[in-house]
Design goal:
Number of helices: 2
CATH topology of the domain at 27-103: Immunoglobulin-like
Shape: elongated
Radius of gyration: 31 Å
CATH superfamily of the domain at 27-103: Immunoglobulins
Largest sheet: 4 strands, mixed
Order of helices and strands: HEEEEEEEEH
Helix content: 10-25%
Structural class: alpha/beta
CATH class of the domain at 27-103: Mainly Beta
Mean pLDDT: 78
Distance between the termini: 129 Å
């Protein structure tokens, strides 16, 4: 009788401990929010996560709340990089451990905007040095 009671008490403990052990993963998560210097969230930022030990890379884009989340990452050392046109690239480093949710927030600084003008030639050149001849010719015909 005592043996049956002991079995019924020990069996649930074994089952529950198996569930807890199986719930332990071998990965972690990196998440955070991206804001500008005034604290406003920035949507559309490309966040790149690179494992420095294995060279594994993943990319996500921040949502309308400036939030990003990269899940199921193997443990290790990471470089997290945030990029968006009009802002300076921001880089953070961290070490991710098993089951960790590492929060890495970015405050991006406004970068210098650059313009690029691309001129393609169709074979016809624009004459800019003799634009005055049209005026002279028109006066000549009006007299």
């Amino acid at each position: 009788m005592l043996r049956k009671r002991l079995t019924f008490l020990v069996l649930p403990v074994i089952v529950l401990s198996a569930v807890v052990i199986c719930g332990q993963g071998t990965s972690g998560t990196i998440l955070g929010t991206v804001t500008d210097p005034q604290g406003a969230v920035i949507a559309g930022v490309t966040v790149s996560v690179k494992n420095l030990d294995t060279q594994l890379q993943r990319q996500v884009v921040t949502d309308s709340s400036g939030y990003y989340r990269v899940e199921a990452l193997p443990v290790g050392r990471y470089e997290v990089r945030a990029e968006r046109q009009g802002f300076k690239v921001t880089v953070n480093s961290l070490t991710l451990t098993v089951g960790e949710e590492a929060v890495t927030n970015f405050k991006m600084e406004v970068g210098s905007l650059s313009e690029q003008v691309i001129v393609t030639s169709t074979g016809t050149e624009v004459e800019t040095t003799t634009a005055g001849w049209l005026t002279k010719k028109r006066y000549a015909t009006c007299r």
